[in-house]
User: What shape does this take?
Amino acid sequence: MNRRLRFLPLLVLIAFVGAVAWRISKPADEKIASKLIGQPVPEFTLPAAVPGKAGLTSRDLVAGQPRMVNVFASWCVPCVAEAPLLGELERQGVAIDAIAIRDKPEDVAAFLARHGDPFGRIGSDLESRVQLALGSSGVPESFIVDGRGIIRYQHMGPIEPGDVPTILREWEAAK
Amino acid sequence: MNSRTTSVRPERSRGALAGVSRLRSTRTVLVLLAYLVAAPALADSGLPPAQWANQQLPDARQEAQAKALMEELRCLVCQGQSIADSDAELAGDMRALVRQRIAAGEKPDQVRAWLVERYGNWVTYRPPVEPVTWPLWAAPVLLLFVGAWLLRKQFRRRRP
Assistant: This one.
């Protein structure tokens, strides 16, 4: 019995070191996806984030046509990186609204002037309440909502060139 | 400096090397000083925290409930911390959300359920007992048995 168990501690150690090495070489995905995919958009009403452009309510997202909702902020650096790609998506026919998180009107206006404005409506979410209601855990994030107001897709983090085909496919699927 | 210079004029080249290393250390010091005055890239908004992020509820019982819940909710952007411990803006907004909902008369478990509905069990530090978490709850008992089994001879030896 003891003879057979002699190497057990060593095996346990090897298994442990192996598990740790595997996890270090392949870090866990730390993205926390919203559980609301396939669920209706929670009810919300947000005031306008910039003068001259309408705010955003959940009713605007039950419009018979799909909408993309970009959760962004003027103080968010990766949002700058994805701005040109949002412009590209808009040119390809994606209708985009936005929610500005913890932002001032003048900062949002400056951001749009500098990085482009592909947005139909922009709601201002000063205390991240709608962000939390959507199950979003950071900026930037983008949701695709179908014409009946059901959340169909969530993209977490900045949109990169390689993500555009996926987003266009999800957009078509939401129609 | 290359080795040929060293072989031809050992003394001079040593002097030159010392000069280079002095230059290098000066540069290192300058770089370190530059770090001191560098402004960090801002990853936060310029807005003040939400009112109820850091202000206690007037009702002490409600505040105690809210505080207890905040210690069991996980911050979404600083994933090793509870929202009670975190300085992240989103954690502040989550504390505000917890306080506002408790003040509006919701039970802590309702607030927790609202968040779990959106972020899954990941968001709570108190995992529910369900098939996928059985190993988690059973592990302490199992380990206790394993420990007793390993020590069984020790127990026997003590007997006269």
Remarks:
- The longest helix of chain B spans residues 10-37.
- Chain B touches chain A at residues 41-47, 50, 76-77, 79, 89-90, 93-94, 96-97, 115, 117-120, 122-123 (CB under 8 Å).
